[in-house]
Structures
1.
Amino acid sequence: MRLELKGITKRFGSLVANDSVNLVAEPGQIHCLLGENGAGKSTLMNVLYGLYQADAGEILIDGRVVKFSGPGDAMAAGIGMVHQHFMLIPVFTVAENVILGHEPTKALGFLNMDEARKRVREISDRFGFDVDPDAIVGELPVGVQQRVEIIKALIGDAQVLVFDEPTAVLTPQETDELMAIMKQLRDAGKAIVFITHKLREVKEVADKITVIRLGKVVGEAKPTSTQAELASMMVGRAVDLDVNKTPAKPADVKFSVKNLEVFNHLGQKVVDDVSFDIHAGEILVFAGVQGNGQTELTEAILGLHTRVHGSIVLDGHELIGQSVKHRLDWGLGFVPEDRTLDGLVADFSIAENLMLDRSDRKPFAKGLLLQLKYLAEFAAEKVKQFDIRTQGINQRAGALSGGNQQKVVLARELSRELRILVASQPTRGLDVGSIEFVHEQIVATRDQGLPVMIVATELDEATQLGDRIAVMYRGKIVGIVPADTERARLGQMMAGVVA
Ligand SMILES: Nc1ncnc2c1ncn2[C@@H]1O[C@H](COP(=O)(O)OP(=O)(O)O)[C@@H](O)[C@H]1O
Ligand SMILES: [Mg+2]
């Protein structure tokens, strides 16, 4: 089945998320849709899946125009979608989930339990999925749950399979397994649309590559293109993909966490007996699949959790029991995971955001008076130094792009007097150009002799940026290893295999 998207335009208010996009998916091909966060990839797929109605353009299947008013129509037409967030019910078995997700089709009609189990087994055997129809979904590893989603699509007789950023939730091994599965599906004659912003994955599986930027197709790339070529197409300028840094020269231990336990609001232990040290002049990266306690660990360091046991010592000073403000004043530099929630006040200006918690003191205030002239100069200097693309320092921070918002947060934190920098996924959602800049700033911070703690979910970033890597799994540190540790071994650790 040949799928063609022709001139698809989709607007959200004044934002053009898709601007006359053309895309063809052919049987027996893996078509990569490559683009940065916010480029419009998911919007396009939601139009295809009937979740959004396009403002212009059409969808053709084997040359015939089709109209989808919902996912049911798309599924019935042979389109299967593997979402990043699985639409599975954890307490049900695989077969039960398959029945629930199944829209009766002409070919199959309604499925009963026995048929569902039989079909799951057939598909699992055929493609080597290793999925037991009677397993409880919630007890399966994430990578296997994803295969259940694929099975759901295949049972509905999908001929076109769309994967929207499927590897974000996977370990490196699970990612490799998924790539192998996509290749098998291709070889079985399916048309695969693989959406990603990860160049390594594109290089590995793509038969055809369409690059999309700011809602527009910028062109097709050859599978033989280098990662650097793909990156520059994606961003629109040349980028250096490597982190340039010299070997660390670690000095004394400046930051020491001992036997730390953190409980979330449900009373679950999300950080479990975690201990580590960071030396001055060293970057320790916390790697692991998202959701294994890394976020809560950094939040506890900032002081956002109330149920915390253990010890967090920064430069000889115990932070547990202290307020967030006290910790920041003591020299904790903090770049939060979600800059729009915790890092910035969207309705404040860029200048105000650059000052934020220091508006009551020198040099920003004299007595009760805000030193507006100083603030303006300071902000203008930071905008220049951090290359923040803005119409002016009085622009609302919320109006900036993600990369520029992140630069504001970094500029603010790095212009304070710090004893440590803690940054949680500092490059999440940034374009490769901004990533390069953020990495440079982090390395420069280390080279000034500060300890640096980073949470990374991309293994490439962890190994490039880190001097040492701590891998977390289910709230515990599985091991702390040198940054040049083999990728495969790090992957095993991310799956919980003790180093
Ligand atoms: N439902 C929506 N309402 C308003 N804006 C949206 C909506 N969905 C996406 N957008 C915007 O459309 C653009 C493209 O988003 P998206 O398709 O999710 O990008 P991608 O999947 O490539 O990361 C972004 O600027 C995003 O903020
Ligand atoms: Mg998306």
Note: The pocket of magnesium ion (ligand 2) is lined by residues 41-42, 164-165 (CB under 6 Å).
2.
Amino acid sequence: MKRALVIGGEGQVGWEMQRVLHPFMQLVVPSPGELDLAHPRAAGQAVLALAPDVILNCAAYTAVDRAEQEAALAQAINADAVHEMGRAAAALGVPIVHFSTDYVFPGDGRAPYREDDPVGPLSAYGHTKLAGELALAASGAAYWTFRTSWVYAARGRNFVKAIVARAQEAGSLRVVSDQRGSPTWARTLAEVIGGLLVVPLRGGRPLAEAVGATAGVYHLTSRGETSWYEFACFVVDQLAPRLNRPVTVTPIATHEFQTVAVRPAYSVLDTTRLRDTFGVALPHWQDAAHLCLADLPV
Ligand SMILES: NC(=O)c1ccc[n+]([C@@H]2O[C@H](COP(=O)([O-])OP(=O)(O)OC[C@H]3O[C@@H](n4cnc5c(N)ncnc54)[C@H](OP(=O)(O)O)[C@@H]3O)[C@@H](O)[C@H]2O)c1
């Protein structure tokens, strides 16, 4: 059985990646203590020593606001370590799968962003994620970088769980209505990427060849778009029978909810390249959220 190194296996995406891949591959899932991306050189050496058949980098510095104060640490984890892991992957001749974000875009567009549209991150987090994309592309590895957006899951820290907690505590929510994007269930990411890896695995095709033939950046999100406010309303409506009180959701403007980091106002991603290259269908965000919410312990 081929061995997959899943870095960040306890995160939202990493956890779902484990669920999807373990029938097909032997999984090696180091803890952040065992493989710490804050020390890029050592992380690269650890990858070399583990010598997996494929690397899935699901780890990242994802605290968007805190990154404004910890830009150097975010850069080490999100970019420098990605470069080292890319170099290790190239040296081993194995592919690497990586994730990036809609926050590489400035958000002043009105149509879904395509992969080659001009980037322009507004935040330190976005800058470090963009640096990671570029570092991986320059590393010489066979790679897929999947830019995704507004990730949530039944497990981990995310918007959906914050909304549910707030609804139960306070019964009223004020949610930003002038930022638009595509909520994406972590399991959707894992199922799509798992499917892409299983095809060559089943066919006996070397993974490095399969990834290398289609290497590059792809947008991978659910279909459709919404605002944080509409997403919160959807969550509250779906969970209404299970919530312990009536809940009101009030739309507010971004300037009424100050955050340390600036977010793009519009960050919907165009997924045509992914769908055309791999022939995958992506779920509408409401359908995916419906399935996830059914699993949410409330
Ligand atoms: N969440 C979103 O809305 C979103 C949107 C767009 C793109 N993305 C991208 O999608 C990918 C997965 O995100 P996610 O939401 O699954 O993130 P997550 O839930 O925050 O998980 C990140 C994982 O990385 C680990 N990690 C953090 N620092 C580390 C270090 N120094 N060394 C090793 N591991 C470390 C974390 O471990 P600890 O918990 O122990 O620190 C955690 O397991 C990331 O590349 C992210 O940038 C996420």
Note: Residues 8, 10-14, 32, 36-38, 58-62, 77, 99, 101, 129, 148-151, 156, 186 surround NAP (CB under 6 Å).
